[in-house]
Amino acid sequence: MADRQNGATAGERKLAILHLYPSLMNVYGDRGNVFSLVRRCQWRGIEVEVLEAGLGDRLDPRAFDLAFFGGGQDHEQSAVGDDLVRLKAEPLREAVEAGAALLSICGGYQLLGRFFRTRTGEEIPGIGLFDAWTVAGQRRHIGNVVLRSSLGGEERTLVGFENHSGKTYLGPGCQPLGRVVVGAGNNGEDGAEGGVYRNAFGCYLHGPLLPKNPWFADHLIRCALQRRYGPEASLPALDDRLEELAHAAIAQRAQKLRHQRSGAW
Amino acid sequence: MGARLTAALLAGRAAAALSRRLGRGGGTVIAGHIVPRLDPRALRQIAARLPLGCVLISGTNGKTTTARMLAHILAGAGLTSLHNRAGANLLSGLVASVVEQTTLAGTPRADIGVFEVDEATLPAALEALSARAIVLTNIFRDQLDRYGEVAYVAALWRQAVQRLPQEVELVLNADDPQVAALGLERQATTFFGIADRAHGQASLPHAADVRLCPSCGAELAYEWAYYGHLGHYRCPACAFARPSPHLAAIACSPQGDKGSAVRVRTPTADLRLQLPLPGLYNVYNALAASACALRLGVEPAVVVRQLESFHAAFGRLERILVEERQLFLALVKNPVGCTEVLKTVLADGEPKNVAIMINDLFADGTDVSWLWDADFELLAGRVRFVIASGLRAGDMAVRLKYALVAPERIVVEPDPRLALEAALQRTEPGETIYLLPTYTAMLEVRELLQRQGYVSGFWED
Ligand SMILES: [Zn+2]
Known about the structure:
heterodimer; A: alpha/beta; Rossmann fold; six-stranded mixed sheet; 5 helices; 12 strands; 31% helix; globular; disordered N terminus; B: alpha/beta; UDP-N-acetylmuramoyl-L-alanine:D-glutamate ligase; Protein-Tyrosine Phosphatase, Chain A; 34% helix; binds zinc ion
């Protein structure tokens, strides 16, 4: 991959985004995250190629800079789990170790952990990229979520919507993405939400997480650029007024709904 | 037994009247909560007195329109339907409608029941009423916060259908694999579907919710897809395949946002029909209602005549004249339905004036992630302006931006009243504003228009 070192000037930069199982793992508007990454690169003149990998496809760990892995319905998720362990575990791990960025959500997040323990006690193996495991829970956590995250050194907010009954716990090899201000988070018990290992992220904020958290989208793009073009690779700012307006309105609405819920219900 | 039922009906009636006097609106279902408490068998008893029994209609999209179409067709055949109001489709809503249309002695003032039923309520409704026929339109992803997943609704229906006596008639969409699978082992099944490849595409679109065989779990092979996962499919691994429909729309010619001309092949005749509602999804609704009416013995000519004189419910696809501007209202509530509405709005290729109102209250679905599964990309380069409004105006505006609608054409105005004003201001007399609200936003708009005298209070029919 000799040309990697060459196109370091702005305008000629390129990124490859890998969308894992786009047709099977796509509930809750997950594709919004891919739209966000693609547009935010294009608006800066960074050329993007979106690669898709489905059941049976093999991965080249050097062919992508950023991977996205969404949530699925239970039915689809078990088919994907098998394929992931068999064909994708090694190359994904290799790419992440080499600095590639990765965002996984809900089912994707769970499958990248060590295992999922079902209600009957059966353990379905994940690929152990995250030092995390998930246990089937009794109640479903559904609603708006607001997190405080100090990813990248600065404390900032992430807003989203969760809908999961699995409870995820983190081992010492995995840091939380943030602390919940509104919502249940990983397990509804310890206040943590999401997991981080190197530039790989997992979380329960499903659907269009990145469009309304543009700083997080840019964090992923920056990681991907740095993996391809070295630590100096920079990312120009965009006009994010609309995104910030939405972000603020959602954070406010989530707080308000939380108060209503604790009051009236 | 009569006295108990009468007492329950009396109490329910009184509570409903009081609630209406207190200004809670015509949509109250209070009787639906009170009556079953006083007489748990009220619904069953009254329904059993319907001379022609009752029909239940369910599905993610189209159940309201299909139920109203069926009631309208039956009216053309001289039959009075006991019919629940749009949206009042939980068990309490059914009871409330029944109470309203029943004498205090418990005799329904109707020949037949035509009930629109919420997907998750279908099993309970089947327990509470002995239906003679069930019409199932489709299962799409809808309010996932409430029901979980498409597979969950499919499993609920499968269990409910398995418990039904064989003589209960099923009217099923052949083009939805999850729905069609319900009827394969039953004698009394009528399938309907579309067979006009001037529409749709040769592969499944991204927003398809069902890709796997309901029988064996293998990936279904699609020869043709109309929208979402509706189309012509077969399983490469087992014998499961789209059943050949008894009623098939063999030619659908869209006529802008006015409607479509449709040719329907039935076992006895070809029907030619000017359907006054636009969009392929309304062809499915018309097929579902026709299939059921024909099975109930209505003459084909009556079916055609009634469908041609059908009017949609408020906000489902309606034109209202407001200050010399046409307001075209169409409810949006889930990705596949919304995409089909967008296609209908944009059909003639002219640039459009659009306002989209997204709320996230319980009746809308509290999760607005679905906005990212609907193809708002269709609007890019084809609008004069789009106003993003409602409690989730911000989410909507961002969605439009990433759909590449030019930012200078996006207006954010969360307040529906101000949004409507802004839309009127930006629209020339004689032009149309396309207003796409979610359910509770639609109620807000209706109230606004009612207060200003543009629509009457008797919108519910
Ligand atoms: Zn099969």
